Automatic annotation (TrEMBL):
One of its GO terms (molecular function) is monooxygenase activity. It comes from Catenulispora yoronensis. Coiled coil: none annotated. The keyword Disulfide bond does not apply. This is FAD-dependent monooxygenase. SUPFAM superfamilies: FAD/NAD(P)-binding domain. Keywords: FAD, Flavoprotein, Monooxygenase, Oxidoreductase. Gene3D superfamilies: 3.30.70.2450, 3.40.30.120, FAD/NAD(P)-binding domain.
């Protein structure tokens, strides 16, 4: 097998789709026999939405409904808002165009990605538990257990991607360091049946003892207490435990009849020091964990997936040198670092007590300043992300807008061109030399000639993950940029 992805959550499925799209034999091994139905993400935002749109998956997700969440988002927009920070609903518009939000639950995303994986020919094997791995110069040997036998078995792969969540066996099996901060909260998210559902106002309620979020869909409750992390993360959450937390936070003698889809979480904020150890790579929660405030986990994990997929595919197919994989940690580690920090800041701003009240007051005033508000909005959506490619041109290293290119065959959007998962050279000055240069990479890169009102002059190289890698104004020749990102030319 060329690549084994351990973990069939959203990030593992997305990585597998990316690999397969680029022609790599890929299998996903997932411990659970069925999709995890517990409530996790309720929406996907920011660059994560664009990553899905660039592969033509956004429309499938939009068609899936999520009507109540959609209405909630529309109500926010009608009030000029797009999000919250630490439960303060103050964030307004972005500097980078309309903020994107897909109001679909995580399970819907996983279903769409599983469907896409099947279409592309990715095999997803469920009920397979990874126990450990060892690597040598040529590949990785995984030790696994299937659902029908107590006997472990071995599987050999050229490359291993650990997308197996926050407690990643892949990460723990290597010498990855996982530094960060311990949790200080115990949180719950559940769909709860309560005797008086109206006892708690809809939205975010900050009380003298914690936070209780009622909604946005009926029955959905998120509770946070600041008395340390849970004693036992793995123990099932009972109705009594959930009711106890709800009573302590709300101060009301409310009765909870049942809870479903329940998760217990804390705010450990940790990050692997490197996302690559030889032939083993980490992505998503396996590489970084943090509290769910601000709904950033999927955005971050999908960003990892689309950054890693095409690079690993080129290396696994022998087209690009292994050094290309080192750009994965270099580009993605700082992105997660920012998310970890902003979630820590949110926990600090959510604590009960008069000192935090004062801090929230000052913070709210600061966010009345347009510049500060936009800066925080862009931080939360990852909109202002710019990878350091060592270039002076501002566009290089940034996510390329969805340009409309007028070609001889009619208009085409960059997002449509990118469905192939290949690199894109867009030529706007009709100079055929750009196409002649790129011909050496015809197995990895497409060339499109056309016009575009918003485009930089000359020509533009866009990586498969949508980031601008070169323009005709760059000091670097196009052939060097193509070699850097896609390996040597094939003539
Ligand atoms: C309460 C809560 C609310 C959240 N809300 C949001 C939100 O609104 N927006 C947002 O973007 N994010 C949110 N998140 C975060 C989001 O759910 C995660 O970031 C996301 O699930 C990460 O995806 P992943 O694929 O990396 O990991 P996971 O979803 O954890 O998937 C990992 C997979 O690996 C499998 N696995 C683990 N170990 C093994 C093994 N040894 N062998 C085989 N398989 C294995 C697991 O069964 C699992 O299916 C929330 C999280 C929580 C807990």
């Amino acid at each position: 097998m060329q690549v084994v992805v351990v973990g069939g959550g959203p990030v593992g499925l997305m990585v597998a789709c990316e690999l397969r799209l680029s022609g790599v034999e890929t299998v996903v091994l997932e411990r659970l026999t069925e999709v995890d139905q517990r409530a996790k993400a309720g929406a996907i935002q920011g660059r994560g939405v664009e990553a899905l749109d660039r592969r033509g998956l956004g429309d499938r997700l939009r068609a899936l409904g999520g009507e109540q969440l959609r209405q909630f988002v529309e109500r926010l927009r009608a009030n000029g808002l797009r999000g919250h920070f630490a439960g303060m609903w103050v964030l307004r518009e972005s500097d980078y165009g309309e903020e994107r939000m897909l109001p679909v639950p995580q399970q819907a995303l996983e279903a769409v990605l599983a469907e896409r994986a099947a279409e592309l020919g990715v095999e997803v094997r469920r009920g397979q538990v990874l126990h450990g791995w060892e690597q040598d110069a040529d590949g990785v040997t995984l030790t696994l257990q299937g659902p029908d036998s107590d006997e472990p078995y071995e599987l050999r792969a050229d490359w291993l991607v650990g997308a197996d969540g926050g407690r990643s066996t892949v990460r723990k099996g290597g010498s990855f360091a996982f530094p960060g901060t311990d949790g200080v909260i115990t949180g719950y998210q559940a769909i709860a049946d309560i005797d008086d559902p109206e006892f708690l106002p809809r939205g975010w309620n900050r009380t003298a003892t914690g936070f209780a979020v009622n909604g946005p869909t009926p029955g959905r409750l998120l509770l946070v207490e600041f008395d340390g992390p849970p004693a036992d993360r793995d123990a099932p959450v009972t109705v009594e435990e959930f009711q106890g937390a709800l009573r302590r936070i709300s101060g009301a003698d409310v009765t909870v009849h049942s809870v479903s889809s329940v998760t217990r979480f804390t705010d450990n904020a940790r990050q692997a020091d490197t996302y690559r150890e030889g032939r083993v790579l980490l992505a998503g929660d396996a590489a970084h964990i943090h509290s769910p405030f601000g709904g950033q986990g999927l955005n971050l994990g999908l960003g990892d997936a689309v950054n890693l997929g095409w690079k690993l595919a080129l290396v696994a197919r022998g087209r690009a040198p292994e050094a290309l994989l080192d750009t994965y940690t270099a580009e993605r580690h700082p992105v997660a670092e920012r998310v970890l920090d902003n979630t820590r800041a949110q926990v600090a701003l959510m604590r009960p007590g008069p000192h935090t009240d004062a801090l929230r007051g000052i913070f709210t005033k600061l966010l009345e300043q347009d510049d500060a508000n936009r800066w925080l909005t862009d931080l939360m959506g990852g909109n202002d992300l710019r990878y350091d490619f060592g270039a002076k041109t501002d566009l290089i290293g940034r996510f390329c807008p969805d340009l409309e290119v007028g070609t001889a065959d009619g208009p085409v959007r960059l997002a449509e061109l990118q469905r192939s998962g290949r690199g894109q050279v867009l030529v706007f000055d009709a100079d055929e030399r750009w196409g002649e240069t790129a011909a050496g990479w015809a197995d990895r890169v497409d060339v499109t000639y056309g016009t575009c009102a918003d485009a930089p002059s000359g020509a533009l190289l866009v990586r498969p993950d949508g980031f601008a890698a070169w323009t005709a104004e760059s000091e670097e020749p196009l052939a060097d940029a193509l070699t850097r990102w896609f390996g040597p030319a094939v003539r």
